[in-house]
Amino acid sequence: MSEFKRIPPEQAQALREQGAVVVDVRDPATFAALHISGSKHLDNHSLHAFIQGADLDAPTVVVCYHGNSSQGAAAYLISQGFSDVYSMDGGFELWRTVYPAETAQGTGE
């Protein structure tokens, strides 16, 4: 079984530009306030549907507040059959300082 990889925001951005799926595991209100453009919000309510509809081989980048919770979520996705999963170090807090123009408001997808 493979393991997830920890990556910096710059690598996450490169993967995103190549079509990687970005999932955000922060709480819904925080996600709605500001998130990475094009990212999907994942929580206990949306997780099952996301897994059912996902391409398990597509690169998937998991984002949280600071890069800690995303590691657990990334490990869970690996356990569910995902093969190319990344946890972004520094989380959204670091992302928005590095890529402030690559953020959006609202509920996203």
UniProtKB/TrEMBL annotation:
Q: Main subcellular localization, coarse class?
A: cytoplasm
Compartments reported by the entry: Cytoplasm
**Matching Pfam families, A to Z?**
Rhodanese
Please provide, in alphabetical order, the Gene Ontology terms of the cellular component aspect for this entry.
cytoplasm
What the record says about family reads:
Belongs to the GlpE family.
List the HAMAP family.
Answer: Thiosulf_sulfurtr
In its UniProt entry, what is this protein called?
A: Thiosulfate sulfurtransferase GlpE
Organism of derivation: Pseudomonas fluorescens
List the gene name: glpE_3
